[in-house]
Structure formats: structure tokens, C-alpha cells
User: What shape does this take?
Amino acid sequence: MRHKTLLAQGGTVHYWVGGKENADDCIVFTHGVTADHTMFEKQVDCFSANYTIILWDVPMHGLSRPYQRFSYRDTAEILHGILQSEGIERAFFVGMSMGGYPSQHFARMYPNSVKGFVALDTTPLGPGYYSKADLWWLKLAAPMARCLPAAVLRRSMARSVAMSKYAYEKMAAMLKPLSKAEIIGQMRVAYEGFARENKDVAFSFPVLILVGEKDSTGKVRAYCREWAKQTGYPLRFIKRAKHFANGDNPEQVNQEIETFITETVRREKKHDAAL
Assistant: This one.
């Protein structure tokens, strides 16, 4: 993977480009809160032979820190800048947990640049999905984390999202370089920003919802069921997986993504041929 940077309003954003050069399709992976781009290493191994791959460290995460004035609108504009820098007009987007929000904001702002979206253990944009109580509890996540010692906080976070040894160790490794203040800061901007910038969206491109069958993070599974019910988007449960489903069961996640992309491309080609 080639390591590159993009200068944004709040700081320097780091991203990586690799996989097949001049591939027909590109996949952009966006990680979750307190994580970084390395959480997709099992997906890079799988898709690099046939696709262009873009990974990035979301502002305030990984190497993209420090960063000032975080917002999801900003992350969408950064994604647009990365695609422009790489000469990519359209791509598939995979957003894991918090990573689903930059992806959805990007899709709202630049719908013609999206071929399809895979919502991986994330939740939908749209105020109608969330009660006032839901948003109140969301804002309490960061303050509650302050009550735990740093080492206990890291362990509890890794255990809560991972079922497999690999996923636990990967999450623990991503958390290790972060101070307790940084972890809390990332949680705060992610959750408060979500509530503040949550908007209704309507997507014309294909969407696939994936969620770990044992995902116990908040009400993610319930939100995903309602999301699928209201939109008709297909919902697939990942077996033997918690919130970090692409680490717990990368084989099923990768197969679901591959099938989704293949079917989307086939339908698009069929549609173009009929015109």
C-alpha cells in the first residue's frame, strides 16, 4: 500500500492506496471509532488482486491526529479530495461502525460518485430512527468511559467488540497507542457529531447491510433491522461475529462484499447495454 497524505482544514489526513492498478472498480474502507485503517487488513488481503483499495485514518484517528474541528461534513469532503487526487470518479464504500457516517455523508453530498455502499455494523442516517433517549445515551458514552482506568477501558472496549482472538488482539493493538484522553475525545466527537449532523438521506445506489449476529454494541442490530425494514436493503447477519465482524469472520464478510460488488456491476452493465 502506498502511503499518502492530504492537507485538510483541521490537519493532515493520512491515506493508503494499493491493490490492482487501473482496476475497473475501487473499494474505499472507512474504520470505526478508536480504530484505524489497519482494521481492514483481512479485506486488503482478499480484494487487492482485483480491486483498487483505498484506506484512510479518519481525522483524530491513527496517523491523522492531532486534528481540529472534526465534523462528518469535513470527512465527506476529505473523501472527495482523496478520490479526486487518485483520479477515481466512482467507487464502492465500506463503512464499519462510525465509518458508516463519513460514507453516508459522502453519499448524500456526492451521490454520483458512489457505485454502492456496504454498511458494516453501522447504523443509518435519519433522525426518525432514533428516539431522544437513544441520543441521550449516546452522548453519555464518552463521560462514562472516564470512570474506568485506561488499561481497563482498553481491555473492556476490545472485549466488547470482538469474539475471535484475532479481532480482540487487533482491536487492542489499535487502542494501545491512544491515551485515555484521546480515546474519550474520539468517542465524544464521533457520537456528538453524529447527533448534531444526523440528516435524512435517500440513496439511489445499492446498499448492503452487514451486522455481526452477536453484535452487542448499543442497539446496532435493532437499528439495522429497522433500516432494512424501512428501505428494503438486504440485511445479512455475520455468523460467529460481534461488532468487529470483519475481524471475527472475515471470510463471510469478504464473500458478502464480493457478491454485492459482482451483482451490482452486472446489473449496471446490463442497464447500460439496454440504453
In short: The mean pLDDT is 95. The first helix runs from residue 41 to 47. The beta strands are 2-8, 11-19, 26-30, 52-56, 91-96, 114-120, 207-212, 235-238. The chain is about 45% helix and 20% strand.
